[in-house]
Each structure stands twice: as structure tokens, then as C-alpha cells.
């Protein structure tokens, strides 16, 4: 089996189990709703099956989730784009380039803040409501930011995103720091 196939099957396995448990249904019940054999579903959840599109489609419908949720790998909970590394689109008639750091999901709203920290200071934030995502671009200085359990070090121009629904921090490193913080609410 090619590596890409094994990765796809692992993604499907994890997604099926996650969405079934989230829906609060047993293997037997989901198999019945989707019209597939319980043994087939059990194999898929354990990463041993090789499902066809029709089987996955039936499972997605039975779970009431888009088909893509079963086959797309999950995005990491923390993502970093280093300064100047975002894919850039250049204007044809001027010296202008834009790099998309993050698009706004449907139904989300965003608040934009400028934050400043004195030298070697930190702000530890309590979790916000579920579904909050934070986007941070360092403007000057250096910072450590992200979930309290796994912050990342950022230089000027670096971008990171992480869940705001967990304890998180902003810490200046070696001097004062400023950043643009965008809080996305869904």
C-alpha cells in the first residue's frame, strides 16, 4: 500500500470514530443507519478497511457531516507562518504583494486588537468561549505565544493561530514586543 493511501485510511479511521462518538451512536446503530455491515464499520474505525466512496458517503449522511470531514486530514491546532513565507500573489501593475494568512470561515466574526508588552512581561489568558480562534502577527520584538502547554517563539512578521478556548499566553522575549491580535468567534 502506498504511503498516501495509508495516511488517507488513518484519517478516515480517526474521523469516523470522532464523529460517531460525537453523535453518541454505537457501531451497530451507525452501521444500521448507513446500510453497511457492522464488521465493515469496525474495520474502518480500526484503520484496516479500504472504503469506497459510496460507503463513506453513506456514513457521512448517517452522521450528518459533510463528506469532506471524513477524508480531509485535520488541521493542526497551532499553525505558524514565518515572516515572508506566506504564499504571495503579486499585482500586475504595481509593486504590491499579498499573502493570505487565514480566511474567515462562514458564520465567524473577528475582533482586531493591537497588543503591547513591556520587556520580559507576560499575559496569561483564561480560556474564551468554545470556538474562539486567535490569530497573532508579531509587529516588533520577539514573543512566545500560544496554548500555555505549548507556546511557540515568534519573530517580527511571524504569524501563528491557535485555539483561544484553552489557557494561553503572550510573553515578550528579551525586550518589549507588539503584535496584532485577531480573535475569531464562531
From TrEMBL:
Keyword hit for DNA-binding: yes
Transmembrane intervals: none
Keywords: DNA-binding
Domain HTH cro/C1-type as annotated: residue spans: 16-70
A Gene Ontology term for the protein's cellular component: cytosol
UniProt xrefs under SMART domains: HTH_XRE
Gene3D superfamilies reported in the protein's UniProt record: Jelly Rolls, lambda repressor-like DNA-binding domains
A molecular function (GO) term: DNA-binding transcription factor activity
SUPFAM superfamilies the UniProt entry points to: lambda repressor-like DNA-binding domains (SSF47413), RmlC-like cupins (SSF51182)
InterPro entries (alphabetical): Cro/C1-type_HTH (IPR001387), Lambda_DNA-bd_dom_sf (IPR010982), RmlC-like_jellyroll (IPR014710), RmlC_Cupin_sf (IPR011051), TransReg_Diox_bact_type (IPR050807)
CDD domains associated with the record: cupin_XRE_C, HTH_XRE
PANTHER family, per database record: HTH-TYPE TRANSCRIPTIONAL REGULATOR, METHYLPHOSPHONATE SYNTHASE
Protein name listed in UniProt: Transcriptional regulator, XRE family with cupin sensor
